[in-house]
Amino acid sequence: MAEKATILLVDDTRTNIQLLAGCLKHQYRLKIAMNGQRCLELAQNPPFPDLILLDVIMPEMDGYEVCRQLKENPNTKNIPIIFVTGRDSDEDEEFGLRLGAVDYIAKPIRPAIVTARVSTQIKLKYQSDELRNMALHDQLTQLYNRHFLIESAANKLAHVDRHGNPLSLLMIDIDFFKHINDQFGHHAGDQVLKAIAEILKTGNRKEDVVARFGGEEFVVLLEHCSLHSAVEKAEILRAEIEALEPMGITVTASFGVAQLMKHEQTFVELLTRADAAVYRAKELGRNRVVA
Ligand code: GH3
Ligand code: MG
Ligand code: MG
Ligand code: MG
């Protein structure tokens, strides 16, 4: 593991925190919350916890309620939770597990058991992060894949303010890519795709989504970006690709740009217009931006 995993300890009693911290502080980076509200805050801010050890009996908001809220929030729902509690009846344990906790530890805690159970959950968390990462990225370029793009576009469209903040999209299709493969081989073609992906990746804001849409097609989804700015951005990228010449191979791309219109309800409508613009760019001679 490259970096220490982060664990959020939540308990309203200082001595309990000290006990847990004593078991875990050498192996993990710890964050500490002494009430439910603070836990909800710390869970959503970096460094993001890989695991939460959550007390149940706390004033104001009990651990069950904290767990419910963490599971309802898309930003925190994937963080595993272990209840660490003095409530040790079967019913309590079943209740906690049904709320979505991955484990349930009864107080008084036994340090060796806590350490072992924590270690197991951290390993599982890393594995599931890795799987999720693989499921949402394109293996060759490490850009997001089509699946992620469509998922996040649906999210963005649901929240877009149709009168205020604009949402724009670039569709990018490499020119005569088939010739590149034919002339230089498939491996060289792959390297070209990677090099272009690097260009698309750099200089983006973190809310932008850059995805490999298909074989030699890419999409950049730009939040808070007007058609005018999107065209400017596309022109910069187009020129960078033209100037790149990866492995000495001259490569260009055609760009279609579209901005979400007020009446448009689905991502497919936006995508279709950008695709039509790419088609026109090809007809007009390729290596150009059409909006
Ligand atoms: P146009 O300028 O009209 O876009 O021509 P084109 O040759 O780029 O268009 P076309 O869609 O006919 O060809 C796309 C080619 O991209 C065909 C396919 O073999 C190649 N391709 C798709 N995915 C990959 C890949 O992962 N690696 C490589 N090397 N080639 C790929
Ligand atoms: Mg307590
Ligand atoms: Mg194509
Ligand atoms: Mg092409």
Element-level helix/strand string: EHEHEHEHEHHEHHEEHEHE
- Across the major sheet, the strand order is 2-1-3-4-5
Name the ligand types. 3'-deoxy-guanosine-5'-triphosphate, magnesium ion
Note the main sheet. 5 strands, parallel
Mean pLDDT: 95
Assign the structural class, choosing from mainly alpha, mainly beta, alpha/beta, alpha+beta, or little secondary structure: alpha/beta
Approximately how much helix is present in the residues? 40-55%
Approximately how much beta-strand content do the residues carry? 15-25%
- Overall geometry comes to elongated
Poorly predicted regions? none
Q: Gyration radius, to the nearest Å? A: 25 Å
Counted beta strands? 10
User: Termini, distance in Å?
Assistant: 46 Å
Distinct helical segment count? 10
Describe the structure.
With 291 residues, the chain is α/β, with parallel strands linked by helices. It has 10 helices and 10 strands. It has helices at 14-24, 36-43, 63-72, 90-98, 111-136, 146-159, 177-184, 186-201, 227-244, 267-283; strands spanning 6-10, 29-33, 51-54, 81-85, 103-106, 167-174, 209-212, 217-223, 253-259, 289-290. Strands 2-1-3-4-5 form a 5-stranded parallel sheet, with helices on both faces. The chain has a 5-stranded mixed sheet with strand order 7-8-6-9-10, with helices on both faces. α1 packs across α5 (111-136) and α2 (36-43) runs parallel beside α3 (63-72). The radius of gyration is 25 Å and the shape is elongated. The mean pLDDT is 95. One magnesium ion (MG) binds at residues 173, 216-217. This is diguanylate cyclase. Residues 6-122 form the Response regulatory domain. InterPro entries: CheY-like_superfamily, Diguanylate_Cyclase, GGDEF_dom, Nucleotide_cyclase, Rev_trsase/Diguanyl_cyclase, Sig_transdc_resp-reg_receiver.
